[in-house]
Design goal:
It contains 11 helices and 12 strands. By secondary structure, the chain is α+β, with helices and mostly antiparallel strands.
Length: about 300
């Protein structure tokens, strides 16, 4: 496993711009506690493609799934390969994947043509993220927001608020857990997992926690943002439901868009995807372009397949 990881790391270093942050080696190492590996195809000493995965086991079943707090994980091909060559390499990649009862992953944006994966027995569900191109001027970016959001940005009483970075992961987690609890839901990650992720992104200068508070020191909204070579990602957002009328959460997002363009000098601001209608509405209102990506899954084990079909 370590040898494959090292090959993956070398391929990543040569082609870093083709990887989203959730597929960076240190990110995978952190979010899987080291329990990840990769399928790969080589020609001589040249790596043509990699396909990382998180392998878990429950009862007697081994399966591939997404690590917690991880958006995308799937195949990455050498950027010089033609589509035809990718199709033939894909078969070799699949052969190098472990035998599992099921597999369920979210593929990164570059995987758009689904046909070759369909031919290999993978099923798919289309999901969507929203992304803002940061190359235009800020005024141009703001002009793509809907009129109500433009008005909120222009009239927000920022003199009575402050936006700051924080290292208080515990307070962030507590606020988010309370938000989930208010909806009678269990938060899908632990404080330890969030803390591990935060420490890793801070170590690699790839993320930060932000909050916006008023003059009374009340925190209205908090955001955990990640970034890689080309994009920043609105990873986790936590609002205080009792203070939403202030619209501070919307102004915090606008601040992070500006921060991503001006300080980080990224090409894109990525909302990191959601299929929740109310969340999508906010992304659209900020002028985000809808970007599709694939949830890819397969159930080689007939009992798992029968169970999944019954559940659906």
């Amino acid at each position: 496993m370590e040898k494959k990881k090292e090959i993956y790391r070398r391929f990543f270093e040569r082609h870093r711009d083709t990887f989203p942050i959730s597929m960076y080696p240190w990110y995978l190492e952190t979010m899987t506690s080291g329990h990840w590996s990769t399928a790969l195809v080589k020609k001589g000493e040249d790596v043509l493609a990699v396909w990382p995965y998180y392998l878990k086991k429950k009862f007697s079943f081994s399966y591939i799934t997404m690590p917690v707090l991880t958006k995308w994980c799937g195949p990455i091909f050498h950027p010089d390969l033609s589509d035809k060559k990718k199709d033939s390499i894909l078969k070799e990649l699949m052969k190098d994947m472990p035998s599992v009862a099921f597999q369920d992953q979210n593929f990164p944006y570059p995987i758009q043509d689904w046909s070759p994966y369909h031919w290999l027995g993978l099923k798919q569900e289309i999901k969507y993220s929203f992304r803002i191109d940061l190359s235009p001027t800020l005024e141009s970016i703001k002009s793509h927001c809907n009129k109500r959001y433009q008005n909120i940005i222009d009239t927000f009483p920022i003199d009575t608020f402050s936006i700051e970075e924080t290292d208080d992961v515990s307070a962030f987690y507590t606020a988010n857990a309370a938000l989930f609890a208010s909806k009678k839901l269990k938060i899908p990650y632990t404080e330890e997992q969030l803390s591990s992720q935060y420490l890793a992104v801070k170590k690699h200068e790839a993320g930060a926690l932000f909050y916006i508070k008023d003059d009374a020191q009340r925190i209205h909204s908090q955001a955990f943002m990640l970034w890689d070579n080309s994009s920043s990602y609105l990873h986790v957002v936590v609002d205080d439901p009792s203070l939403r009328q202030s619209k501070a959460s919307l102004y915090l997002i606008w601040h992070l868009i500006k921060y991503s363009k001006e300080k980080l000098q990224k090409s894109y601001f990525d909302f990191e995807g959601s299929m929740i209608k109310s969340v999508q509405e906010i992304r659209r209102n900020f002028g985000g372009e809808q970007i599709p990506y694939h949830r890819a899954y397969r159930y080689p084990n007939p009992w798992i397949r029968l169970y999944k079909n019954w559940r659906s």
